[in-house]
Write a structure and sequence with these properties.
By secondary structure, the chain is an alpha+beta fold. It contains four helices and four strands. The chain has a four-stranded antiparallel β-sheet with strand order 2-3-1-4. The chain is elongated, with a radius of gyration of 14 Å.
Length: 94
Amino acid sequence: MPKYVMISQLTDEGAKTLKNNPKRVKEVNDELEQMGVKVLEQFFVLGDFDFLNIVEAEDESSVSKAAVELASRGSIKTKTYTAIPMHEFTSAFE
């Protein structure tokens, strides 16, 4: 199944929600899974973004729909990138 890197930044409202309910992260991960996007790894990062997630989904349409759903809530802004396994990438040059 294709993998994607989803980086996200909390809005002010999202930071308030997370502070008041840290379990919300797990709840959102469960909601993503219901949308067909499975969170494989998740990190809190320091810098321009707050979270780095490695997710998998059936296709770009599925992960795009989930990203729009998250953004529509007003608590987070996301950027999503297709992650190509290195062996697939390098085999294109053989």
